[in-house]
Specification:
Helices cover 7% and strands 42% of the residues. The protein has 414 residues and is mainly β. The chain has two domains: 210 residues, 3 Solenoid (Pectate Lyase C-like); 162 residues, no CATH class.
């Protein structure tokens, strides 16, 4: 029999293990291996552990054997009984698949999780279901891992009593894809993460953010849905972010955003849909951001661009049915708008080149008044407001001179 040999990095040492000698270990109540803890004690690197249907209640299970796969049959449930971490993985190249994990207690001291990977490489968590857990899947100081096709449903009580569904700290090169998360503090949370790919996840009905990342550089977010969260996505203190093809929907409230950009640089926001948010994009202290090909539909504010955001470009976006298309807090701005489609544009195209012959000023005078005095919003539908906005369009005096689209599109062409 030929033996395939692979290896795992553990504590800085290259430790070989022989896959060809791997064995199947079956966990089932009433047998000689009644618990997963017992299976781990007898496992060798590369073994495949199958957990049969049943409800298992064990203390925290430490998985310290590299290269093993733990796979649950349908109905294999681990009940934490409100204890600490249910599965704590400290070995490299461990795969956890097909388990249901319930009941991880809230702690104000420890970040307790259903599945926690601690200082490992090559970990995989896939096709698991996590219910009523403080934190769902937690990675700390881990590299080259994959988190996919998991479902995490939280308690949704208060922010202080809730953890995050998928939480990464001080990790790099992680793939997070096709997960469905709801009812947590943050659906997905990154802090000090580099080179991650986040795609096709659905993050809804979370208390704070659908996605929250800080100090996490050169990460990409493609084709995700962030809906009905306290706020959609918060991007803070980060550079080199790519956000493409996402949907930000119905993130509604007095302090809710579809996308909050705070102190980020050199990033792309392209081909996303912002629909029904209090504020679709709020940019503060953010520089050199390309905002292109997005749709802003039926939001309160489509774009709030603060004066301390520099050299941002908004090109070929679609603005339709927003209460305010663009708002700012200053008459001066270095951000540029060009070749966007504006539903409120009333100009003409005599030379039929597809662009309006008259520039469009997206910042309403009333938007400036509301920015300075928020209670003025109650006058929004009044004839007085319509009159002052019309007067400002005819003879611009107070609205920003630089926030002008010189070439507005007559038709939307993505």
């Amino acid at each position: 029999m030929s033996l395939a040999v692979t290896s795992s990095v553990c504590l800085g040492l290259l430790i070989p293990f022989t896959v060809g000698m791997a064995q199947d270990i079956v966990v089932q109540e009433g047998t000689s291996v009644p618990t997963l803890g017992a299976a781990i004690l007898s496992a060798r690197p590369g073994d495949h552990i199958v957990v049969r249907r049943g409800v298992y209640r064990e203390p925290t299970i430490v998985i310290d054997v590299p290269g093993i796969t733990i796979e649950g049959d349908s109905g294999a449930v681990f009940d934490g009984e409100d204890a600490e971490d249910v599965l704590l993985v400290t070995a490299d190249s461990v795969t956890i698949r097909g388990l249901t994990i319930r009941h991880v207690a809230t702690s104000y001291i420890d970040d307790r999780a259903a599945i926690k990977f601690q200082e490992v490489t090559g970990c995989v968590a896939e096709h698991n279901r996590i219910e009523d857990a403080f934190f769902g899947i937690y990675l700390a100081k881990s590299t080259d891992c994959t988190i996919r096709h998991n479902v995490a449903i939280g308690r949704k009580t208060t922010e202080t009593k809730s953890g995050n569904a998928i939480h990464l700290w001080n990790s790099r090169d992680v793939l997070v894809e096709d997960n469905t998360v709801s009812g947590h503090r943050d659906g997905i949370y990154f802090e000090f993460v580099t080179g991650a790919m986040v795609r096709r996840n659905v993050s809804t009905d979370n208390l704070r953010y659908g996605l929250h990342f800080m100090f996490s550089h050169n990460c990409e977010y493609w084709d995700n849905v962030f809906a009905r969260n306290g706020a959609g996505v918060a991007v803070m203190y980060t550079k080199g972010v790519t956000m493409v093809g996402n949907r930000f929907e119905e993130n509604w409230g007095s302090a809710a955003f579809g996308l909050l950009l705070k102190d980020i640089t050199d990033s792309r926001v392209e081909d996303n849909v912002f629909r029904g948010n209090s504020t679709a994009i709020h940019a503060e202290g953010s520089d050199r951001i390309i905002v292109k090909g997005n749709e802003f539909i039926a939001n309160g504010w489509a774009v709030k661009i603060m004066a301390n955001s520099i050299d941002n470009e908004f090109t070929r976006n679609r603005f339709v049915g927003n209460a305010f298309d663009v708002s700012t807090n200053s008459r001066s701005s270095s951000s540029r708008f060009s070749e966007n489609y504006w539903g409120a544009y009333q100009g003409y195209d005599l030379d039929r080149d597809g662009y309006g012959d008259v520039p469009f000023r997206p910042v309403r005078l009333f938007a400036l008044l509301v920015e300075q005095y928020p209670p003025a919003i109650i006058l929004m539908r009044s004839a007085f407001v319509d009159m002052i906005d019309l007067a400002e369009r005819v003879v611009p005096i107070l609205t920003p001179e630089t926030l002008v689209d010189e070439h507005p599109l007559m038709e939307w062409r993505q």
